[in-house]
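To: structure desk
From: M.T.
Subject: fold request, one chain
Message: Could you run this one when you get a chance? Sequence is below, nothing fancy, just the single chain.
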Amino acid sequence: MSTLAKLPLTLREADYELPVVADIRKEWDWVKTGITEILTDQPQLTYRLEDVYAECVSGNATLFILEKNFAVTTIYLDKFTDDKVFLVWLAWGKNMQNAHRLVTFFEQVARDCGCVYLEGKTSIDRLGEYYSENGWELETRVFRRNLGLRYMGEK
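Reply: Done. Structure tokens follow.
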């Protein structure tokens, strides 16, 4: 189980429901639908449905749920600075209009885990605009060109 599952959160009073750490094995039937939708909408992503499951089961990633919304997070070390980075790897939901409120939640979780940064990645323009308008800094854009040397069949 992830270290996040054992983490005591120090959040201030919130006027909304907070996500909880969940076992992906118990939530898989509905979570896989969201991951499939993400992968279908963003075919450039290189991981598979099973990779997300495996990362959660092995404790390398953590599933948070709130009603029928979820986020999968992970922590990694910046290889140049050794700073811990809390990455919201995936996020999906049926009711995401209040998703911006969860930033405060994930900021606190990241702090509680000793992370220096909270990070989100997206190729979706409207999410990039949200990030830019709400205190996030754009650090880089990644452009990738396929050289045709790899099998391009189904994932």
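Reply (cont.): Residues 18-121 form a domain with the Aminopeptidase fold (CATH 3.40.630.30). Let me know if you need anything else for the meeting.
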